[in-house]
Amino acid sequence: MKWFRWHPEARVVGDDRALRSALAVPGRAFRIGGVGALPSGEGVFETLTSGSSGAPRRILRSMESWTRSFAVNAGLFGIGPGVRVAVLGDLVHSLALYGVLEGLHLGADVVLLGGVRPDRQARTLAGAEVIYATPAQLRLLVEAGWQASGLILVGGSKLDAGLRAALAGAEVREFYGAAEASFITLAGPDAPAESVGAVYPGVEIDLRAGQIWVRSPYLFQGYAGADAGGAVCDDGWLSVGEIGRLQDGYLYLSGRTGRMVTVADQNVFPEEIESFIAGLPGVARVAVLPRKDILRGAVMVAVLQGDVTAEATILAACRARLGALIAPRAAIWVQEWPVLASGKTDLLRLAGEVGL
After folding, report:
1. Rounded mean pLDDT of 32-58?
2. Any idea what the Cα angle at residue 317 is, between residues 315 and 321, rounded to 5°?
3. Taking Cα atoms as reference points, which of 241, 87, 88 lies closest to residue 178?
4. What is the pLDDT of residue 161?
5. Cα(148)–Cα(165) distance, integer angstroms
6. What's the pLDDT at 51?
7. 72 close to 87: Cβ distance less than 8 angstroms
8. Residue 145: helix, strand or coil by DSSP?
């Protein structure tokens, strides 16, 4: 089926008014949240990016670009009637909307947990067999005392070693994708933890000077509204500006070109540094940001939340692992951590608050 459907056996726990309105007429265009004119036509819809690089962008998609992966995931994860699927994010964003629509389409019992406090989410998750979440959302759950269980489908950003260890009681399947591309890779049980898995069924990857290009039946149609967006298309291929490498069939990410920093003529990806620091003791949250430097052009600074007394150990570990050039030169500790509606760190606001 090319259009979204509300499977006769699907049930929803939570406020489903927006969903019922969106799916009231099969194939009718819709968008949940966002501003501006609604999409028109049959078999299309809009969703939003996370907004990690600025304001959320409107994404125009065909319904079929998602229903094709619904069919794949039904086989991979056993999603169907009687299976309890929990989604932690708000429906205005792509990942959460995907998880909910997939569950409804396949006849699952869908639990809506967007906007619910982490301690209450933890209590509601009892009995959930499949959970769609981002690392940021899972970290809040763990901090609230949640004991992970079931199958957790993790997307939105790389899962760090510390959080992965805290989720040891569950089957964790990390996937890499983008609002514009949907699924790109999926990590199986044997995938190296540093990777984001192997190519998702139906996807082709081409690396051009390290930049990841994707071709698949899951790509978006384009950006809606006035924002031209950041993805680039080339004869059926798409890139969102991510840099990575393929090794032994697994994809490893370096970071996005939009965040790349040049330090003494060397390209540095903050995401790689963040991934290492996030797994160190005493770190609850981390963002690595550039600070201007006369000699090197820029140096890196770690903005942290957690145990301040661990600072010297954290910086020393970074120098030992990353080298003096790339390792953060200083740490800034904050008590309040700004996040976007998607749960990701609000990097623009954080940089402004710490003066970087």
Report:
1. 84
2. 120
3. 241
4. 86
5. 10
6. 64
7. no
8. coil
3-state DSSP assignment of residue 64? helix
Cα–Cα distance, 199 to 260 (Å, whole number): 24
Reported as a pLDDT band with limits 50, 70 and 90, residue 52 is low
Of residues 225 and 252, more confidently modeled = 252
> What's this model's pTM, rounded to 2 decimal places?
0.90
88-102, 144-158, 336-350 — which is least confidently predicted?
Answer: 336-350
Six-digit token string for 31: 């968008």
Return the biggest CA–CA distance within the chain: 65
Q: What is the DSSP letter of 58?
A: E
Of 247, 172, 174, whose CA–CA distance to 205 is shortest?
247
Instruction: Report which secondary-structure segment, H or E, holds 139.
Output: helix 135-143
* Cα 244 from Cα 179, distance rounded (Å): 18
In DSSP terms, which residues pair with 247 in a beta bridge?
250
> Which 3 state secondary structure label does DSSP give 294?
coil
User: What's phi and psi for 305, nearest 5 deg?
Assistant: -130, 135
- List 346's β-bridge partners, or say none: none
Separation in Å, CA 238 to CA 70, 96, 124, 184, 203: 21, 22, 38, 11, 11
* C-alpha Rg value of the chain to the nearest Å: 20
Say how many C-beta atoms besides its own lie within 10 A of residue 234's C-beta. Answer: 11
Range in 49-53, 209-213, 280-284, 293-297 with the lowest mean pLDDT: 49-53
CA distance 14 to 199: 34
Query: pLDDT band at 214, cuts 50/70/90?
Result: very high
User: What is the DSSP code string of 182-245?
Assistant: EEEEE--TTS-TTS--EEPTT-EEEEETTEEEEE-TT---EEESS---S-EEETTEEE-SEEEE
Q: Contact 199/218 with Cβ under 8 angstroms?
A: no
Distance CA 344, CA 135 (A): 8
